[in-house]
Amino acid sequence: MTPTLVRHHRYADSSAPVDAGTRARDWAEIQERMLAPLYEAVFDRLEVGAGTRMLSIGCGSGLALLIAASRGARVTGVDTDRERLALARERLASDPAVRPGPDRAAAAHARLVEGAPAAASPAGQAPYNLLTAFNPIGCATGDSDGLAPALASAVPLAARGATVVLTGWGPPERCATAPVLRVASRLAESARTPRSGNGWRPALRDDLEEVAARAGLKPDGSGRVSCPFGYADVDSAVRGLLSTGLFDAAVRATDRSQVEKEVAEALHPHLRPDGTVWMPNVFRYLVCVA
Fold first, then answer.
1. β-pairing, 53-57 with 74-79?
2. Mean pLDDT of 92-103
């Protein structure tokens, strides 16, 4: 694992509430980097570079934007999570690959927008030629419900024939994290509360294709990418996983301490002798034409 994956993250008091800022930083510092191989694989396949004008739907704390900008792309990110966007702004403002300068092409410029995709109009610039939705679907009930409408509002901002990339979890038998995610639905169901879209469900083979069809997109290829989840210790793994939002219904149904305890227990099969946690996973992406 890289040094950034072996940092230890602990809550000062496991019974204390976690504010939105802390949770967003847990995502940015612990969990988001697990998807970096997915971003890199997509950008390699599409040859993302100086000619790319990318809109990232649900850009979160901006890691995919940074990677694309480092390749010379002009990037725009849109998200409704204010705390994650704030972290993205910090990252993009401090990264030399993104800051415009006398020795850097304007294509490296980055822009962040809070709200729905429709709010991210190119603003007098050329239309986008790449739309990405890097929040993987296919592991929670209803997690694709908002994606098709988001795509529908983003496609008019793109050039005709633009590339659209959707991402999702791979088959449960190829994802070691799947049994850990099942804790969310089990706890929510045991308390007889609605899952509200947060309960785990197995990824289905045509999840991405169904979203593409609803959004009027034409599939044009797909791929699978290995994205192992590696953590410094169980505490870091629990914090990272809870930052995804997949356990929110379970926390509401019981309490955060109970969810943390049961997630930690589910992680034990993946605990290595040195105290780190390692879970191999496979993610899938679908390339479409708008």
1. parallel
2. 63
